[in-house]
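Thread: Newbie trying to understand structure tokens

Hi all, I'm a second-year student working on a class project, and my supervisor (Dr. K.) asked me to get a predicted structure for one chain before our next meeting. I've only ever worked with sequences, so writing a 3D structure as a token string is new to me. If someone could post the tokens and maybe explain what I'm looking at, I'd be very grateful. Here's the chain:
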Amino acid sequence: MGQDAFMESLSSTVGVFQYKIYLLLLGTCSGLKVVVPSHTVHGIRGQALYLPVHYGFHTPASDIQIIWLFERHHTTPKYVLGSMNKSVVPDLEYQQKFTMRPPNASLLINPLQFTDEGNYIVKVNIQGSGTLSASQKVQVTVDDPVTKPVVQIQPSSGAVEYVGNVTLTCLVEGGTRLAYQWLKNGRPVHTSSTNSFSPQNNVLHIAPVTKEDIGNYSCLVKNSVSEMESDIIMPTIYYGPYGLRVNSDKGLKVGEVFTVDIGEAILFDCSADSYPPNTYSWIQRTGNTTYVIKHGPHLEVASEKVARKTTDYMCCAYNNVTGRQDETHFTVIITSVGLEKLTQKGKSLSPLASITGISLFLITSTCLLFLWKKYQPCKGRSNIEKSQKQNTEKHKHFQAMRMLWKTSEYMNSLLFQKLLEFPGCPVGLFQPLLVYQGKICTIQFMKLFSTSLPKRKTLRRTVNPRTLTRTPSPGELSWASRALEGNSERIF
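---
Reply by user tm_fold:
Sure, no problem. This is what the structure looks like when written as tokens:
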């Protein structure tokens, strides 16, 4: 009994002493300043933890005292370690755990355990002309580092869009005070009409799944001392078909109509967004009858083998997992534009060159003939013979120019026909109108060759019936007048 009473009295005395020290630590003096880098320090269990402390003062000091206290939650602070100048006075209970090297007030805790978590209070006293005191408090937390998490997905076989659900669970073997965060394609996942989380946030539930839920999911787990992210996982979601469309490697597409030249083979491609991939069927419509002509995403149509100029087709896409299907209709029109273009391309060069050569030859020959007749010497002849000869030469010149004029007209019409033919436009040599795609077109052009004739007054003055061996007929004169009065532009 006496021993118990003594121990109780000693415990009460120590408690009062510790309480007085705690009250002393609460006071500060403006002449001394104690600084700690952070008021909260996170440590890893089993490793050493260093609590740096800095203090400063501006007065002479004879003694420097440093005291460390440890306070657990809702407990009285305990004395851990102290020093006077350079002498360290540890508590025998903690002398193997805590280390300090005065006048440095920093504290080393090694090794750190979960029981070392709490508040650490440091007080510095300076003795000089007076006593200066200052203190700081540092909170220490102790955690285990996070191990790499693993994500499990249910059901593992996948889910059908708008029908099935998917659950992602994040599992971690090691770590304390864990915080979970779900990422999709590297961005945080938030609560929505289809996304929900468990209270600890380690389970993500998606109900129902949609195509937009497809992506790379991962789980990020962290605490105060570490963080780890799981491997990426992609849930299997069956959807589609969406966006069914038909494209071709040739031809002109306007809306749902493909225009193909005769003689061409065109390859059609049918595609839609779907998982798993769709099965495709090609259907042709003839009158009121439809029948399947091929299975698969591609269809080749040889235009020369199509009996009808306009044929209706349909591509059907079916997803055998979702049970949904889609179809699209299109029309193929076979035209002869391409064949006519190929024919004209192969035959237009040779006739054009021939006509141009002939026209130039005739014009050159006529001009040479005219010059030779005009400047031929006429010596030893009478004035009457000379006059008759001149009139005859002028009449021949008139006839030559008439032939040149008609030749030029004919050549111009041939050249115009070759140069301005349109696909599907039946043009004759002297047809006044052109027909293109059911419309009547009037074409006006400039002559390719320009031929000058004598003026009307000169022609009438030089043609003298008395001196001519043969008088020009009225038809010739009327034709010459019409030719001279004509414009160089004509309308076919």
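A couple of things are worth pointing out once you decode it. The mean pLDDT is 76. Residues 197 and 204 are 5 Å apart (CA to CA). Feel free to ask follow-ups in this thread.
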